Structures are given as C-alpha cells and as structure tokens.
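User:
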Amino acid sequence: MLRLSSSSLRRRFPLQSFSSHSLSFNEDPPFSLLQNPPNPKITPKLNPQNAPHIPVNSDLPFDFRYSYSESDPSANPISFREPPSFSPFGPGRLDRKWTGTCAPVEDAGSERAKWEEDKIRVLGDALTDEEVDLLVENYRHSDCNRQINIGKDGVTHNMLDDIHNHWRRAEAVRIKCLGLPTLDMDNDKSGGKVIYRHLNILLLYRGRHYDSKNRPLVPLMLWKPRAPIYPKLVKNVAEGLTFEETKEFRNRGLNSSPLMKLTRNGVYLNVVQKVRDAFQTEEVVRLDCTHVGTSGCKRIGVKLRDLVPCIPILFKDEQIILWRGKERPQ
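Assistant: Predicted structure:
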C-alpha cells in the first residue's frame, strides 16, 4: 500500500495556492444570485361589481333568475333544497330579496317604461342593408372571438354581464345555441337587437349610441342556486283520461315508431312544428332521446308542453310520450 509523506503532500498541494486565490468579502462571486427588483405598485381597477356601495341597486325591470329561458315564472315550487333566504348574490350585496327562485323587482311598471325608452335611444336609427351585411360578415364565422355559447341552462343571469363585456370592444356578439335552448330562441333581456339568425346562430347588435360607461348594472351571482322541488310532471292519470285510457296511450306510444331522434347538444329548431303536424293525424307521439339523459328529457317535455301545446304522459328509458289532449292544437 502506497503511503505519502507530509513533504510529498506539501509539494502536491501547496497551501499558498489556496491563500493566493482567496476572495475578499467585497468581491462578487461569479454565481451569486441577483436581487429581485421591487414589485411595482399595481392600482386595482374599479369594477362596478365590486363597488363598495352595497347593497347594489340595479334598474333592470325584470326579476333576477338563474336562467331566464329555462325557467317558468308561473310554476310554484312545493319545497326547497336550501333555505329560500340563501341568496346566490351574497349576503347583503343586493337590495332585492331572494325568494328561493328569483329576486323580484319592485315597481316594475315605471322601471320597464324607462328601460324601453333607453333601449330605443341606444339602438338609434335602423341599420341599413350594407351595415347589416358588414356586421354579419365580420361576426358570423366560427372563428369569431366574440362568441357566447348557450347550453342546457339557457340564458343565465351572469351571461347578461358577459354580453355587455363583449360590447365594450365589439359592435355585435355571436351567440351559439346547442341543445334545449334551440327549441325557443326568442328570449333576450340584454337590450340589444338580433340582426342575423341562421339555425342555432344569432348575432346580437348593441346599438348605435351604446356607451359602455353607462351600461346597465348587472349584479353577478356568486354561485349557482340549487333548483327547488316542483310538483310531479307526469301524473299517474293524465288530465281528461281514465286510468285505463292513460295506460293504453302509454303502451301505444312505446310500441309506435319514433317521430324524431334527438341527440345530445343537438339543434331542435323544427321539433315543435313536426310534433304539431304529427298531432293532425296521431293522438300519441314518441320522441327518441337516447343519450340525452333523464333530466334533459324532462326539460324537453316541459318545453314542448308549453310550445306545442301537448301533455307529456310518460318518460321512460329516455323516451318521451306526448299526448295531444282532448282538443286538437290549431
């Protein structure tokens, strides 16, 4: 085994080499960390939704609901899944009282008259054909970045604020509807005007004299409220029929060929008219809603009940059975 003496170690590793290259404390080592620059002070922008003046007072002349197109104001719930006073706008943030389904407006008559006057003033003169064609060409394409998608919840309350946010930088907004809202696309509470409609695509124009600084205040919902409990949609015995007749119509509908097949997130523009035409010769109609879901089938049945009109008598295995009623719809 090789052993090194102390003299050989001194010759190989002289101490002077270390002391001669030693660094002073004033020198900057080559790999020292740079000091982080101080963060600039950012002044928060004023947002009307976070205004310190609470409760917020809105001049919109309609009741605030989670969904304006997929809810029936005339339907009275029989119970609630959460306390009715538990407002989705937050405690003390709105000057309206939450009833469990909506926040009703007080003195709606005068507020609506003022809102209609402001709407006419903001829209201004009617657009010419050349102006409409230019807006349609700019915003109707699928690559438009000013687009709002409407799904199964329909036109929700916070969507009104999204529309006004797009109107700050664009004259029109492209709205794409899929699924249940395509049954009825005539529900608008934003104050704009529909200048283009093709299948499930809408273009909503803001108006000639729109001012984003004087836009209506839309208080935001902080969470989605839980849906209340409504009476049973399909009764054991349909109104105007006996138990045996109801059972016969249900069996006849299940054994008949489906009038249409509705897909999930499809376009249901011609469903209402086809059901009306079918009721001219048939008493019972079946709609195949495979992959739509149980909840989606019931929502479609409620819509058709009001739009056709008709009476849903059975929801089973994603199939909808509709009865035209005693009186044939005109």
